[in-house]
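Case study 2.
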Amino acid sequence: MIESAAVLAAIGQRWEDFAVIVALLAINAGVGFFEEQKADNAIEALKQRLAPSAHVLRDGAWRDIAARLLVPGDRVALKLGNIVPADVELNGDGRLSIDQSALTGESLPVEKTGGDTGYSGSIVRRGEMEATVTATGVQSYFGRTAKLVETAGSRSHFQQAVLKIGNFLILATVGLVGLILIVALYRGDPLIDALLFALILTVAAIPVALPAVLSVTMAVGASTLARAKAIVSRLVSIEELASADILCCDKTGTLTKNDRTVGEPVLIAAGDASELLIAAALASEREQPDPIDRAVLDRLNATGQDLSDFEVRSFEPFDPVRKRAAAEIQKGPIKFRVAKGAPQAIAELVEADGGLQAKVASQADALAAHGYRTLGVARTGPDGAWRYLGLLPLLDPPRDDTAAMIATARDMGLDVRMVTGDHGAIAREIAGTLGLGTNILSAQEVFGADGAGEDGDKIEAAQGFAQVFPEHKFKIVRALQAHGHVVGMTGDGVNDAPALKQADVGIAVSGATDAARAAADLVLTAPGLATIARAVEEARRIFARMTSYATFRIAETIRVLLFIALSILVFNFYPVTPVMIVLLAILNDFPIMMIAYDNVTVAGTPVRWRMSRILTLATMLGLTGVAVTFLLFWYVDVQLGLPHATTQTVMFLKLLVAGHLTIYLTRNTGTIWQRPWPSLRLIVAAESTQMLGTLAAVYGWFVTPIGWPLALLVWGVALAEFLLLSAVKIWTYRALDRGALFGHQHYARRVEGSLRS
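Prediction:
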């Protein structure tokens, strides 16, 4: 539109206007580009911190490169803890234990040998091997699975709100500008002049700085969150987080430490706890222990015992089919075997009778009710027969900061609900410990035995969910959204990706797969949920800034557009020139940008866009501003009898100074001196542009000079208007809170519902 105005100015041979418009266009474009580029670069730099890498043989040397640079045929090295960077074929005679649960849903690591396939995104839990890349990107199993998340998704509430604001301003602008254009042509004004003024006025009224303001505000928040170990991959999700009222959380590794500890052993045939612990430790991998083996070995070490007298003759790693690990041991001349695994699997190994099976099941259930998983342990005696030594309880304790985070979230109006694949008894115990409530429903209770049903009312009433599969998470999120909730969801695997993308705010926890990160809006790079509370606080701070901007922008549009339109229609007088309007638009951009750095009050509950409230306040401020501006116009035009060109400069300065002062009004709901006070950046930007505009008006830069006496008069009127608008704002908020402004609350709700629909 500004470019069209420049063309029309050239056609009309108004070269001074043409030069000013082109110069200001370049400044506006430069500011917008610089700020948005800075925001984009910041986000891109943050995303690069998430990029996976690979140890690859290139040009005869091993080096670390970005996994995205791998090609089929590359040789890569895999070892404990590595994420497999592409689909690979394992080389050599070694063995790898690979956790591919994130892709296949298998709960236990899978043993792989030479010639087997390792899938991109799976994690090496034990062993070290070289492999050859066979497929990358979307051609890999990982890539094909990740593409499935494209079927999920929800529209940002923030995008909807911005569209409503934009539509309101555009419709109001087009209506009034169209009316001005018709009247101007009816009065016989030159067509070029009428079109030029209409275009310029449209530019001033429609928020052309909106994209830059949004980008800067969101990017500032994203940078703050990155320092708190949370990387934002979708900027508008920050606003969604401000509105979230339910957060569905994984248990293992998110609410808990994912660092298992061994509780007090339960003896069955063992003579004492030492015998049970030694047998369990001998059936564990000591070189590269998995989390369970490490917990057993740590418990043994805590007792001061060691295994130096025992020789492991052979070791059978945990087999997910048999559900146990076993070893052949020799101590001096004595040889025996040990085994540990699922209690039922060990009972089968020892050929337990009905009484022993019932005892094992009863003990396991009792431990599960207190949040423990159990390991069965067995050993052969001198006669070679297996004996069921007892049970080892395994506890994954809550993280030290989880209870505090949940309490903080509750204080902020965010309801945390556990979602876990664990047994219901374990989930209830952990939930009770953390204060989440014990109304934990199993997936079968919610979705039925076949998983086809879905009880939305049960889902909304539940305080958590147990024994769920990844597809259940997607349905839980969707059901809560259907009940009007804004839902956050945590996850870490590829199978969690659809739920993460469907959620209003998908949160990939620390250690999540690339597919989960790609589907998520927020990626945590530190374990635990403490960062989420910080993110919610920052999101609500950003929401307050955006509400302030929206209110200011609508009020300014009403003030400028209505004053100019009425001046032309009623008095047949153009109160400002096209150059002045462009100057107003440009000078407004600088303080508006600084709203992104403003100090604001953080809401104590989830926030939503209340458009009727914003529009009402903005309209009251705008109309009051129009009345005061007409009063000043009457004084300088009728009482002082100033030339039209001088009057136009006075009106330009009044619109500029009073408009910038309005920024201070819309940033809170109370008095202008209420804390938190405006940020230094906002004050400097607003006052600098006001002074620049004042100097331009006094000394005649691009406008007719008015001198200091008239400039001081304008400042006096603007400050008086500022105090008046402050009183109007406080009265309007109080009336809205009482429902008095509309007569009753029902009408206000109807207005808001109409705007939403």
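The CA atoms of residues 369 and 425 lie 5 Å apart.
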